[in-house]
């Protein structure tokens, strides 16, 4: 446990940020799972409609600093690949 006041504050701030980032990542994973469920069900129209929403959530995680830009691009590319592979 830190002794210096500023170090104690940093511990508290980091705990808050960690909790927020965890919630943001959970939200992102939920959106991705919803999209993948639509892809698995074979409903191309619904999956096509859900894709921009999912990408938007991923992009907002980048702007919040939760994930990196390349990670987001990789995730979106994978989701687009699955969408395009649907028949």
**Structural classification:** mainly alpha
CATH topology label: Methane Monooxygenase Hydroxylase, Chain G, domain 1
- Our measurement of the CA-to-CA distance between the termini, rounded to an integer number of angstroms, reads 57 Å
Helix and strand element order: HHH
The overall number of domains is: 1
Q: Which geometry do the CA atoms define?
A: elongated
Mean pLDDT: 95
Write down the Rg: 17 Å
What is the beta-strand fraction? under 5%
Fourth CATH level, the homologous superfamily? Ribosomal protein S20
Low-confidence stretches: none
Tally of helical runs: 3
CATH architecture: Up-down Bundle
Write down the oligomeric state: single chain
Main sheet properties: none
Please give the share of residues in helix.
over 70%
CATH class reads Mainly Alpha
The total count of strands amounts to: 0
Structure description:
With 87 residues, the chain is mostly helical. It has a single domain, classed as Ribosomal protein S20 (Methane Monooxygenase Hydroxylase, Chain G, domain 1, Up-down Bundle), CATH 1.20.58. It is 85% helix and 0% strand. It contains 3 helices and no strands. The chain has helices at 5-41, 44-63, 69-85. Helix 1 runs antiparallel to helix 2 (44-63) and helix 2 (44-63) runs antiparallel to helix 3. It is elongated and about 60 Å long. The N and C termini lie far apart (57 Å). The mean pLDDT is 95.
